[in-house]
Each structure stands twice: as structure tokens, then as C-alpha cells.
């Protein structure tokens, strides 16, 4: 029953319908696991295992897909076999969660239990309940390079900006407390829509894909920086 409860909670990831979320993976109901072939989460939407949260790399931690739920997982988390009805009851590679659900077998946990940290919130889950989320670029301090990521201001934590490497990652790689920052507009540069967060000596420069998206982020960040947590609260001119 515990395994079923965990799986039902995690299956909420498949039910997110976030505007602009870069995935077309449809919902797969818990009772359909093993009975219907899932649509796989695309490799380029994750940078870490969707189960254990360890980062992928080209040599020691490769990407695999669970044939039951479609998650992108590492070799250790997909080192299980379960018979899947949609594939003629042949054994297929599945993740640990699906293995427990489909077979009823228990698995000894070889990793120490860790309390869920502030960054260990799945991007899809947080994005589905966000004030604003989208892809942005964050410029290096020297302004010569940039990193594209998935940026989210959650409804339940509206004073913090969470930064994910990809929109389906299960853990944010960093966060920025927005309270007290100033939001600065910057002139368009080489068709790039720039704006900044600044506080004392700390300055973050962002690049939005469109001018309209830039304005939405500037407004959302300014409200958070001012400590406005109610999305319905009117913003003073």
C-alpha cells in the first residue's frame, strides 16, 4: 500500500499541464502501468535521474527509460525487470518504483533516507503551481557566455526564484531569494531582451526570448522583491 501511495503521488508529474512547458508527454494513470505503453519523457528535458536525482554524464551514468512509466532514469534505478501486459507479458527494464508496484516485491533501500531539501522539488510539479515559469538565459558575470535553464517562482514559495537545468528535472540546482532585490530594465542588445536583478554588489542578468516574456518576468520579480505574496493583490503604480 505504501508503494501504491508513493506511485500515485509521483504520477502527478504526468498530469501537469503548464503553459509553455516543453513536453508533450500525456498523463499515464497508475492503473495503466504495464497495461499501456507510456510515452517516454524526452532525454533533453532532464539532466538528472528522475528517481535518485543524480546528474547524468556520458560515461558513468547513462540515461535509460522505464518501460512502464516512461521516466528517464539511471542504470542503478532501472536495474529491475517486470512483466508488462502491453508487451505480451515479457520482462522489461523498469524503475524501482514501477517494479514494486507491478510485482508487489519489496526492495531494500541502499541509500540512507534523506530529508527533502529546499531544492528537491520537481520542476514539473512546481511549475504546475507557479506564479510564472519559462525558459530564460542567465548571463555569466563577464557577460560573454550564458546558460539556458528553466526558471520558476512557485505559488507556495513566491519570494524565491528556482532555477532548473531542464523543465522535467526533479531537483533545482540553485535558488535566488528575491526579497529586497531591484529589477532593472536594460536596452535591447542584438535582438536580446535583457533585464537584471540587483542588490548591493550582487547582479544577475537574464535574457528572455521575447519582449513580452521579459515584461512578465520583470513584473513577477518586482512583486516578489517587494514582498507581495498574494497573486490577487493589486500592484500600486
Automatic annotation (TrEMBL):
PH domain ranges (all copies): 129-226
Gene3D superfamilies in the record: Pleckstrin-homology domain (PH domain)/Phosphotyrosine-binding domain (PTB), Zinc/RING finger domain, C3HC4 (zinc finger)
Recorded GO CC terms: cytoplasm; cytoskeleton
Ranges for domain FYVE-type: 43-103
GO terms for MF: guanyl-nucleotide exchange factor activity; zinc ion binding
Keyword Cell division recorded: no
Pfam families named among the record's database cross-references: FYVE, PH
Keywords: Cytoplasm, Cytoskeleton, Guanine-nucleotide releasing factor, Metal-binding, Phosphoprotein, Repeat, Zinc, Zinc-finger
InterPro entries, per database record: FYVE_RhoGEF_PH, PH-like_dom_sf, PH_domain, Znf_FYVE, Znf_FYVE-rel, Znf_FYVE_PHD, Znf_RING/FYVE/PHD
Main localization of the protein described in the UniProt heading: cytoplasm
Cellular location(s): Cytoplasm, Cytoskeleton
Keyword Nucleotidyltransferase: no
GO annotation (BP), single: cytoskeleton organization
Protein's recorded name: FGD2 protein
Organism: Erpornis zantholeuca
Gene behind this protein: Fgd2_1
